[in-house]
């Protein structure tokens, strides 16, 4: 099981990302628009820099929904390899057969 603080920090990042997504996308569109004057684009860069760093989407860490483990993560199922093995052994994932001999 992962540390509760790490899981909570990641959840906080998810909330911030959701909150600032529209504002970030508008500012990025202004920054990338070459038709606008350089002063306006630079002002958008400064506004973007003032937003919380944790509101950036690439700061979110993929974590297992069950254990919070950050490594060995399967995106399609949103679980780690260890949780996948346990769920497969219990027969809770359709189409997954864990070999045993």
Essential attributes:
single chain; 101 residues; Helix Hairpins; 30s Ribosomal Protein S14, Chain N; 2 strands; mainly alpha
Report what the structure shows.
The protein has 101 residues and is mainly α. The protein has two domains: 1-61, Helix Hairpins (Orthogonal Bundle); 62-101, 30s Ribosomal Protein S14, Chain N, CATH 4.10.830. It is 51% helix and 4% strand. The chain has helices spanning 4-32, 38-50, 81-90, and strands at 73-74, 79-80. The protein has a two-stranded antiparallel ribbon with strand order 1-2. It is elongated and about 70 Å long. The two termini are 28 Å apart.
Name the helicity range.
40-55%
Largest sheet: 2 strands, antiparallel
What number is the mean pLDDT? 94
> Do you know the CATH topology of the largest domain?
Helix Hairpins
Level-2 CATH architecture of the largest domain: Orthogonal Bundle
Structural domains: how many: 2
Strand order of the largest sheet: 1-2
For the secondary structure, the number of strands is: 2
Name the beta content range: under 5%
Treating each run of at least 4 consecutive H or I residues as one helix, how many helices? 3
Structural class by helix and strand composition: mainly alpha
User: Termini distance?
Assistant: 28 Å
Q: Kindly provide the radius of gyration, computed on alpha-carbon positions and rounded to a whole number of angstroms.
A: 20 Å
> Unreliable runs, pLDDT <50, ≥5 residues?
none
User: What overall geometry do the principal axes of the alpha carbons give?
Assistant: elongated
CATH class term of the largest domain:
Mainly Alpha
Order of helices and strands: HHEEH
